[in-house]
């Protein structure tokens, strides 16, 4: 776990990532808080806090006595939210570093295009 | 929050020395605490008072709603594992388990023997013939298998190697998940337990410096590195814990430097931010600021 952010947020994000990349499909059961705690070697209360945040946001829902499940439409909603944050999280730091190194607009675009040749297929 | 133990204005003096100075807090049920602080900060004294092994000079302590001293009803729910634990000369590991079974209402003999096997602790061996590592293993085995509603581990792993410590953490987490209870871990190996503990109590020279959720302390302090004017600009208005320099570069450790506003400011000023781990934060909070780094002496000349 990183040092800069609360662990419960990192747990929530790990589950979100699994939903976005499709390893946890909608209506699939997510690991219990005790399983998450044991796997990540963290306090169960902290793991529960991360899971509960996803429940309150509607990403997961609880089936009494059975466990937590991925809600319908969760993947689309998460993708939408991540896209909204993409500029701030990835584009702005990229531009700041480019500015520092004196990389101009055209050169940066060329770099993106040539790396994009590989990534582009996945991105469709 | 249901409190299993409370301390109000707890003070303990040994002659001129104030080991605990007006300490107040509550221990909640079903919570793992990290009790942190330097040697001599008062950790062991605090645990001795909470387990009825010492009296406070002033202040009030209650454990399961009663004073713990010579109170069998309270003490059967409390387990205190300490490195300096003495056992009768003729005791084997098995004798220790048998005694523990009588002392602790929730003792689980099967679990004790499975832990002993994990730690490769021979049940028939005389305790006085155990190596330091095995003695530590015996302590944590008793502490875990007792399943006491309030369990204190006072530096239980001085003799344990890293693999055995990992085993202890894993067994603790797994058993705590099945049988929630209040655990107080006193340790200097902060990095190892920082993800395990839910709440942190930090003692410094007898005072309670922190009583907070471990998760809230993550990123509480940040090391900001950059050119002098930039770092000064970033540190202005924040509490500075530490500062070091290397030629034109300055690294200042400040509190509350990781919010979105702080991050934007750091980016504008070209200051690199690095969050402090819990261990680094505790070091910064408990090292007296009088020590001057060699680089600072250089600069002062």
Structure description:
The complex is a heterodimer of chains A (124) and B (301). Helix content of chain A is 66%, strand content 6%. Chain A has 124 residues and is mainly α. A two-stranded antiparallel sheet of chain A has the order 1-2. In chain A, strand 1 and strand 2 form a beta hairpin. Chain A is elongated and about 60 Å long. Chain B has 301 residues and is of the alpha/beta class. In chain B, 35% of the residues lie in helices and 29% in strands. Chain B contains twelve helices and 13 strands. In chain B, strand 6, helix 6 and strand 7 form a beta-alpha-beta unit. In chain B, 39% of the residues are buried. Classes of the chains: A mainly alpha (124), B alpha/beta (301).
Question: Main traits of this protein?
Answer:
A: mainly alpha; Arc Repressor Mutant, subunit A; 2 domains; two-stranded antiparallel ribbon; 5 helices; 2 strands; B: 301 residues; alpha/beta; Rossmann fold; four-stranded antiparallel sheet; 13 strands; 35% helix
Per the principal axes of the C-alpha atoms, what is the gross shape of chain A? elongated
Counting H and I runs of at least 4 residues, what is the number of helices of chain B? 12
Number of strands of chain A: 2
In CATH, the architecture of the largest domain in chain B is 3-Layer(aba) Sandwich
Number of domains of chain B: 2
H-E order of chain A: HHHEEHH
Strand order of the largest sheet of chain A: 1-2
- The count of helical stretches of chain A stands at 5
Name of the CATH superfamily of the largest domain in chain A: Winged helix-like DNA-binding domain superfamily/Winged helix DNA-binding domain
Report the helical percentage of chain B. Answer: 25-40%
What portion of the residues of chain A fall into strands of 2 or more residues? Answer: 5-15%
